[in-house]
Amino acid sequence: MANVLPKLPSRRLSARRTVAGSTEPAVGLRLSAADGVYSPGETLEFQHFIERLSAQWIDRLEVSVVWLVEGKGSEEMGVHFFQSHQRSELAKSALSEPRVVSTVLPSTPLSFDGRLFKIRWCVRLRLYLGDGREITTEQPFHLMPLACSAALPV
User: Fold this and answer.
1) d(Cα 19, Cα 40) in Å, to the nearest integer?
2) Which pLDDT tens digit goes with each residue over 67-95?
C-alpha cells in the first residue's frame, strides 16, 4: 500500500476553514495482489482512499492505470484505464472508506527493465484541490506472462 503525506504550505485558517486542521491529507492505494504481479487478461483490482481531507476541498479526483516508457531520449505514457470524479460525486460517501476499482489488463505492453529503456505499469491517484494544488500517488505493479512471474525476485 502506498500512503502519501504531501508537503503543504502552512497557513493559519479560521476554525471554520480547516482543510485538514493541523494535519496533512493522506492518500492510499492498495493492490489486490500482494506481490504486485499480474498477467495479461487478468483483472487488476485495487482500493483507494483519502484520509484527513474533506470532499469540499477537492475539485476532482482522477484514478488511472498507466504504463510509462522511460529511457534515453523521450518518455512516453499510455493510459489503459481512467476515471474522473467531481466534488459532488465524492461528497456522497466517506472518502476514508476504501473504494474498489477493477479493470482487465491488456496483453501488451509487458513490463520490461532493460538497459536502454524500461516499461513500467502503475495505478495513479491524483487529487486536484480547490486552491490549485495537486496531490499524486502511484503504486507500481508488473504486467508479465504467467511463466515469467515466477522468475521475479521477491
Assistant:
1) 41
2) 999 998 889 999 999 999 998 888 887 88
